Structure formats: C-alpha cells, structure tokens
Amino acid sequence: MKVAFVLLSSLRLGAGFPGMMGVGRNSSPKPISKRTEPSVRQPLFLSKRPNTGITNPHPTFNATAQFVDVGPHSGHEFQAPGPNDRRGPCPGLNAAANHGFIPHNGILTAADGECLESTTAGVYSLTIVALKGLDEAFNVGPTFSVGASAVGVVYAGDFLTGTWSIGGKYPGSVPLLTDPPGLLGTHSKYEADGSPTRGDAYLNGGNVDVLDMNYFAQLYNLGTEYTHDIVAAHAEYCQAYSKANNPYFFLGPIGAFLSPGTNGLIINMMSNHSADIPGGTLTRDVLKSFYSVTGEPGSFVYKPGYERIPDNWYKRPDSFGLEDIGSDAQMNNLMYPGQISLGGNTGKVNTFTGVDPGNLTGGVFNAANLFQGNNLACFVLQATQQAVPGQFSGLLGNIGDLVKWLADILGPITKELGCPQLDVFRKEMFAPFPGAESYLH
Ligand code: HEM
Fold this sequence. Notes:
This protein has 441 residues and is mainly alpha-helical. It contains 14 helices and 14 strands. The chain has a three-stranded antiparallel β-sheet with strand order 2-6-5. It has a three-stranded antiparallel β-sheet with strand order 8-13-14. It has a two-stranded antiparallel ribbon with strand order 1-12.
C-alpha cells in the first residue's frame, strides 16, 4: 500500500494545467507577455510595527546569541550550488542550503535535524525534519519548522523516508516510480500564486522558478529600508497584479496564507538587528543579498540559487513560529481588508470570487474567527490534514499510513496552538476555479 501511495502522490503533484507537467528549472517556459498594471488600494491605516513583528515583550538585542557567522572558517561560508543541488522558490531555504545550515544538496531527511523541544503539548516527533539549522540561521521556532517541513514531506517529498526537496524532483525511495516533485512541483498545493517575487505559474508557462523582475523592482522601489507596512503594500500589489493578469489565479488554504505571510517573512526573517535598532532594519543591500540580485533598478541581475546570508548579519532575537506568521498576516488583513482570501479567478482576469471559510469548514472557522488568536495557523495546518485523503485517494484503498503520520506530527503543534477540532472540509468548493485543478487532483 505504501508503494501505491508513492506512485499516486508522484503522479499527481505535477499536474497544474495544460503545459505545466514536468516544467522545472531548466525548461523553456512560454511566458504570457501581455501584462496589465493593476490599480492598488491604499491601506486603512499604517501599523508602524517593528520589523520583529507583533511581538510582546519589546525586542531586545544580544550580539552573541544573534550573530550569524558566515565568515571565513565559520563552517558556514557561502558555497555556490552545484549542478545537482536543488534550489527552489524559497529564498530562506536556498540561503540556508548555500551556507550549510541545511544540507547543501537541498534534499532534507529526518537525520538533518532533531526536535526534542519540550512544549506545553509535549515533545515533538523525532521522525520529522525539524531543521535545527533554520533555528541557527534565522531563529525559526518548532511550530514553523516542523509544520512547514511536514507539509513539505507530504507535497514535495517521500513520506516513506521523511525526505523532501527545496527545489526540483529527486529519486524517491521506490525505484521505477515517478520521483517526488520537490517544492517546485507543488503549484497551488504549497507553492502559490501572488508571491512577493516569484511569477505566477500560468504567466510563466507553468514554471514557478522564475524571479519576476517586475515584482522585485516594484518592492525594491517602495523604500530604501523596508518595513511590514511596505511589504503589506507589496502583497496588495502582487495580488492585484495576479488578479488582473492571471485567469488561473488561485489561492487555496496554504496560498491564501502564503501570499501575505511570505511578504511578512521578508521583514521578520531577513532584517538585520543591532543594539541601536533591536527591532531590526532591512536595507536594500541586505534584501538583494537574500534574493541573489545584483545591480541597480533597470539593470538588476538575478542569479538563480545564489541566495546569500550577508556578512555582519544578526538574526531576530526571538523564536518565530507559524502563529507569528499568522499574526502578521492578520494585521495586514486589517490594513487591507480581504488581503487574506480563499478563492480565485474563474477563468478570466478580474473575476476573483471568494470561498466562505465557514461553508468550507462546517462553521468551525468563519470570516470573523479566522483572524482571531492562532486560528489562521490552525486553519492552514488542519486544512492540509483534511485535504490529504481526498488528494491521495482514487488509486489507493488505504492512505491510513500517511494520515496517521501527519496527525502524529501535527498533533502536538495544533494542541499547543489551541486549535479547534476540524472535521469538515468541503474541498469541492474550489472546483469552480480552473487554477485549483492541481490542488483538487
Ligand atoms: C521548512 C521551512 C520552510 C518551508 C517549507 C518554506 C517553503 C516556502 C515555499 C513553498 C515558498 C513559495 C511560496 C509561494 O510560492 O508563494 C516560500 C517562499 C518564501 N519563503 Fe520559505 N519556507 C521555509 C522557510 C523559510 C525561511 C526560514 C525563510 C526566511 C528567510 C523563508 C522566506 C521565504 C520568503 C521571503 C518567500 C517568498 C519568496 C518570494 O516570492 O519572493 N522561508 N517558502
């Protein structure tokens, strides 16, 4: 039965829409060249929060604990990726791999990390890659690293071995079957439209490994030092741009959270910290280093996979979890109501239609409570759990192994976050959206 699971998951994950299957880093996308600049809303207010986000108590600075040494003889010097190393849509993971905080080849296994952190909910499972290296590099906490990598194993990897790839596909544990796809093969399941700099799949012939220089320049030109309020405006631009140009624009449970959430990660995770500004500051040079971009507006050059942690860089002071990504995204949603929305365009541009979270979840999460407490993070994790059986059924008589594996890993996290019980998930509500095809099948 496990063999059948691998076969099914591998067969299905690449299928987004016609022309998308198998498209990867070295393919030749056929981009849609006609583009429309969108009109963008103004925020209802500015939050003026520090770059550490909505933190309580106030940020502090400890040079020894926060310095991330990537200098000579540190053991974390930059090493460019080789031809067989995987790199993908996440600049944080790419940079961590280039500096050896996670495996340089970009394929993560259970042996790469450990997570014995005690929490009120108990002890996290040892079987999941907890990415100790991401904690060292960025101060990523367990709800983020365990939750995000569990979803990585489900959609981008091979749960028989607990492996996943931060980039393209790799040989799975069962020879002769289609390979696990890596993050680059997870469009609309994990990798999503409306990203801060990555172009939408549809607009790039199915290739999700494209840094859209229009997006990067748009962000770059919003300031000389970046804040949460600036990236909230950028998230608004990216979504408006996708709605106005991509008839397949789709935001499923993870995508709706990722679009504002990853914009927030730019500020929360990439900012440099100091005694003078413990809340952090993000300059243009640091942004370019993390995004592997050189040059100036008009002559920017992006070198794929060369994302780099800058010299003299100090990470955030506190552990950052999935619930913190949720809090920041919620604040942005107050500034721009509806910035977190489930749904998509219905086959034509500017036809965005929302899906009511209350109907989707049998009332457990609704438009009001989704933005309270830890509910947004809960929704993302629990919707993933609920969606898995439908996504991997069909050829399988039993997917109990995967469902149990996921429940064992995510159980302590959802308990710690105080998540309500979710039993209903009407995934078929996404059927009207053509961009949901690969999410649904
Ligand atoms: C296990 C940990 C992680 C996983 C599984 C993960 C996964 C992903 C995925 C799938 C995307 C693509 C999202 C999309 O298409 O919209 C993404 C984007 C992103 N991630 Fe990560 N990530 C992780 C950790 C981190 C860390 C530690 C950072 C810190 C710098 C980070 C920063 C970002 C940013 C800024 C983006 C947006 C990229 C862009 O479009 O410009 N991530 N990540």
